[in-house]
Amino acid sequence: MTIMPPRKHGDASDGVVGGRQTRFEGSLKVTGAATYALEYPVENVAHAVLVQSTIPAGRVLNVNAETARAAPGVLLVLTPEDDLGFTVASDWGGNRPENQPYYPLPRHVQFNGQPIVAIVAENREQAFEAAKLVSITYEEAPHVASLDDPNAGEGKLMGNLVFNWGDAEAALAAAPVQIEGTYSTPREYHVAMEPHGLTVKWDGDQITVWEPSQWSHGMARTYSEWFDIPYENVRLISPFIGGGFGSKGAALAHGAVAAFAARKLGRPVKLALTRPQNFTNYGGRAATRQTIRLGATEDGILQAIVHRGASETSTYADWPEQTGAATPILYKVENFSSEHRVVPVNTVTPGALRGPGKNPSSFGIESAMEELAYKLGMDPLELRLKNYADHDYQSGKPWSTRRLREALTEGAEAFGWSRRSHAPRSMRDGRTLIGWGIGCGTFPVLQAPSEALIRVLANGRVEVVSGAIDMGQGTYTVLAQTAAEVFGIPVDQVEVHLGDSRLPGSAIAGGSMLAGSILGAVHKAATAARDELIGLALNDENSPLRDTGANTLTFSEGRIAVPRGEGPSLSLPELMAALGRDEIETRRNTLPDGASAQEHHQAWTTMAKVQGPTMGEYSMHSWCAHFAEVRVDEDFGTVRVSRIVSAFDCGRLYNPRMVESQWRGGIIMGIGQALLEEGLVDMRNGRTVNNNMGDYLVPTNADVPDIQVISVGVPDYGASALGGKGVGEVGIVGVAPAIANAVFHATGKRVRDLPITLEKLI
Amino acid sequence: MTRTIHLSLDINGRRHELDVEPRVTLLDALREHLALTGTKKGCDQGQCGACTCHVDGKRVLSCLTLAAQVEGREITTIEGITGENGDLHPVQAAFIEHDAFQCGYCTPGQIMSAVACIREGHAGSDEEIREYMSGNLCRCGAYNSIVAAVREAAQATVKEKMEVA
Lengths: 762, 165
Description:
The complex is a heterodimer of chains A (762) and B (165). By secondary structure, chain A is of the alpha+beta class. Chain A has 15 helices and 30 strands. Chain B has 5 helices and 5 strands, in the order E-E-H-E-E-E-H-H-H-H. Chain B is an alpha+beta fold. Chain B has helices at 26-33, 90-97, 107-119, 126-132, 143-164; strands spanning 5-11, 14-20, 52-55, 58-61, 74-76. The radius of gyration of chain B is 16 Å and the shape is globular. Chain B has 2 domains: 5-80, Ubiquitin-like (UB roll), CATH 3.10.20; 90-164, Orthogonal Bundle (DNA polymerase, domain 1), CATH 1.10.150. Chains A and B meet through helix 1, helix 3 and helix 14 of A and helix 1, helix 2, helix 3, helix 4 and helix 5 of B.
């Protein structure tokens, strides 16, 4: 065993909000001791696997499962013949249709890969073997394979996604310089490293679900509604989650099946989706297509934007991937028109994937802006700065904070943008063409209520307790820092308990809304606990601080003392001992005072209380500007990203180390989106062809250069109690257009459909 | 009743006895039968690297290895590289210091790969580290930090060897 010399783990200032504290749960993750959902030891567990439809649309006529039922180890076979007795649960907003049946193993097939049959056996190998013995007879119906299917049609206009101001068509027609482009993005998948799956155990009418979750309370609510049992009877446990990226916010059909099987069998059931099933049992980002027309003056002042977009959805639910989400707010524009349609196809309903809406939207507008820049013969940086939006032209409201100008100028400086030669194909290194491009990104500030509990123990340790989730963003770490700062103690004196629906309710770990929300609640609860301690310390007859005459106390460097350092000082355990207290517990939330129990429940288990970016007097968003360099092999058309500099305005950073990691992660996912990622659909049968990690390519280590990230933000106390704006989503937004723009600069070829693969360049 | 076979597996310096079906992979033997869940299942088809373990000191994908194949071989998992006194392996410590992970699910595989990568002498430059660590996918995108962590751990290993010599 090699023993390392002592290493620097930072200093005490790392342990407060804004410090660079290393990952709080880090040692658990590097030793394999962090326990993910399928790793809990549960006695006598049976194993379930799913058999999926092999047609895209139609009806199950017959399931022949007799051989499977007789196979070794098989305990239960569920088919569309079985009445599982479920009713449809509430949607994200908490709206629930009345008495509408829900069939997780349906007779009516809506997409290829839909779960039709479940097999439960003593072990997983037996369940898989038996699954191969099931034969299903279908009556096929006509299908629409994808957005590109000739039968897909125009889809339906989403009335809530129509935006107009000024007179866009007239202003466009009158503009001396015009460009038009149609931009498309394919189906993309989350590919979280931890596949979906769960273990379920019933004790009477109480159910425990170990399942990776971005939202413990919301998913627990779904299970309770499916089974028509009280919410309190469900416990969903998810302290560690192996990546979500939007895919793990909702309970899904396989969860319903496993939970039903466990109750039916009277023993725990584990169901682990295979990697290929992770491409069909829940939706990734929908394929999109958008046409953008820009009109400008000859000196590059935008006169009009006309945007028409569409995204695919399933045949049974409308999920818009909003291609017009970033279009209205990136630039100053007096005449604007945008519409978005959804086109039903035979797929599982798409879902949220990092930077939903904003991401494909920015690919459109940021590609179009560069096309305009080249048409004008203008530096794309100059064009962007020239059309800087001084306020939100969509809502008419002022920005809370918007440091996009600084992101552009400081990013350009760090990148060395001034050394760029404007003409395409004008920068090269031998046979390698070099190109530089810019892409801007944004994501709204979403605000949601949260609750937290703080417990100060006799031994001086402070517990932070919340149902919030850490899927790698750093929730454990920043909550420990928050409590450490309030109590003036080192981070290692804090314990953080997360990821359990029995703990105080929290916003979803999604939409970049968790940190701003839960830090507010933890800070409030911790401050209340500290105030209670101060009150006791100044008034309790056994307190050494009682007769100091002070009216408050300081908590610093592990000591509690009167201000200005005169008189006695005590450590937290000493004070607790003097007060004769075993613990002090406070529970606080960020709902308005006097909220009812019903409102509490609604706040944590639905999205009904989530506030959008313009619901107050300001328009609040995170912003970024990416600068990408690509090197393109002139002979083979292979593109390598050789350099990226990205500058962000995400307000105050609660832990720059964690934030930088998230930004880089988003940028890397953006590299994948630009060059590699594309869900391929077999037009004959709607099958996802590349349903695995060898064929659906995500970036590897060798695909990724050193990425420089810069923070240009300032605290935004309108956006959150502690001044931060969202971090996780915005990183990917604008990366793909930056790379596409760099590829154009290198090659002179404009690729408007992602990913940019070599056959599009040769 | 399905046929089972008896296996004696030497894992992390300890002998484990188990009865499993012959088709059970090393990965499932570790996770489902021996409660060694530090080794992760990301794809179960040899594409992601999350299940990387060492067999006789060399990295293998445990999802593509049958448990029955590794009898009599020396198996090391993430649980087996920490010092007896609980000290982290230099690669583990460097991963924390450089924030070389977020969700942590690919991390045990990354670390097992990194330990072998350094031992193989494939950590001589950032470019080489990137290439020889590319069998381990990280969807959170910690690649820059993984390279930094492997570089630092490799340099520390070289330095120590020189001091010993």
